[in-house]
Amino acid sequence: MILLVENDTISRNAFARLLRAQGYQVVEVTDGQEALELLPKDNFDLVIADLVMPRVNGFELAAQIRRHWPVMPILLMSAYLSQDGGKIISDGVVEFIQKPIDPPVLIATVQRLLQKPTAQSTVVASSTPKLYRRKQRSEVWHFSSNCSQWLGEDYVEQRQVPSTSEMCNECIVKWRTANSH
Length: 181
Description:
Layout: E1 2-5, H1 9-21, E2 26-29, H2 32-38, E3 46-50, H3 58-68, E4 74-78, H4 83-90, E5 95-98, H5 103-114, H6 119-127, E6 132-135, E7 155-158, H7 169-179
Parallel strand pairs: 1-2, 1-3, 3-4, 4-5
Antiparallel strand pairs: 6-7
Helix pairs in contact: 2-3
């Protein structure tokens, strides 16, 4: 279930219609305060929020979500930041897309954030640490601190489990070796 947090009624309705047309269940609220009140009451799989909203803005909402639900995927969107600016400011803690929203980009991002892990990635995810790192401009994630490529500087961290196709082969091999009986 997706929690959609957008104070602009026209945008909120358009995003909700688009997501529902793809088969997603969507709950709509108008600001971050309403979202914070609703989050403990239901099992949401993803929060999509505008950055600029009254009462509680998108960054404040993301910080509160990270504090209480550290692995909840969050997608922030804004017309006030460029795509690169949003990524730099969010520093890998949340996903970011720039408005105006390109519907295929929104759907692809939601699908990626909600993708069901494969059997292989489920096994890796269930037995690995909750912290993943990659170089700033790399797509390869590392989860084993004894990996020869483990990053000590210039990296992005996340707690969301990447798919095994995005993981370092050395980390996967070390995990398999440690868990084979």
